[in-house]
Amino acid sequence: MKRLHIHLSVANLDESIQFYSRLFAAAPTVHKTDYAKWMLDDPRVNFAVSTRSAQKGLDHLGIQAEDEAELQDLYGRLAGIEAPKVEQGATTCCYASSEKTWVIDPQGLAWETYHTMAQAATFGGEAAAVNGPTAASSACCAPQPKVVKISMPAKSACCAPKPSQENA
Predict the structure, then answer these.
(1) Cα separation of 21 and 23, whole Å?
(2) In angstroms, what CA-CA distances link 55 with 46, 121, 133, 156?
(3) Comparison of pLDDT for 143 and 155, the residue scoring more
(4) Do 134 and 84 meet the contact criterion of CB atoms below 8 Å apart?
(5) Which DSSP symbol is given to 2?
(6) pLDDT per residue over 43-80, tens digit each?
(7) What does the DSSP 8-state code read for residue 143?
(8) What percent of the chain has pLDDT over 70?
(9) Residue 123: its pLDDT value, please?
(10) pLDDT band at 152 (very low <50, low <70, confident <90, very high)
């Protein structure tokens, strides 16, 4: 069964680990000086935070396959999508050795599809040459998304509160 992956870039790793450990009622399954990951079953998600990106907030989303057959199923789906893709193949990223491909959604958000084969001692490899108009300079980073401004109603009952409204 595949698992949804969410990766946030955070300013303070310790504060984020405390927050998400309480939210998920679980300690991270991987905790490094610049990275933490929760492999949750309820909800079934691979949730990671790191201090690696300059821009804070949502870094990327993904679908983690449990085996090669699931990964090939995902790759088959990607083949039918006309969108920028970066096929990395075998790479080291987020303290794991994985096989992965990136795709950019219509809003410019990076999605990765991947299968992790083993843990790794380093966050990622040295800069890798990847092709494509949105390719990142590192094998471990999401391709650079396009910045798309989305207008939202000023007051909507179904939208997340703005940070300044959370403490009101």
Answers:
(1) 6
(2) 21, 25, 20, 26
(3) 143
(4) yes
(5) -
(6) 999 999 999 888 899 999 999 999 999 999 999 999 99
(7) P
(8) 74
(9) 85
(10) low
Residue of higher predicted confidence among 49 and 157: 49
The token pair that represents 86 in the structure block: 């970066």
- Sequential DSSP letters for 3-37: EEEEEEE-S-HHHHHHHHHHHHTS--SEE-SSEEE
CB-CB contact of 40 with 82 (8 Å): no
Q: Which residue did the predictor score with more confidence, 67 or 142?
A: 67
Q: Identify the DSSP state of 142.
A: P
Give the 3-state DSSP-derived string for 41-110, with helices as H, strands as E and coil as C: ECCEEEEEEECCCCCCEEEEEEEEECCHHHHHHHHHHHHCCCCCEEEEEEEEECCEEEEEEEEECCCCCE
Q: Which two tokens stand for residue 110?
A: 């990076």
From the list 5, 41, 17, the residue with the least C-alpha distance to 142 is 5
Question: Using CA atoms, how far apart are residues 136 and 127, in angstroms rounded to an integer?
Answer: 9
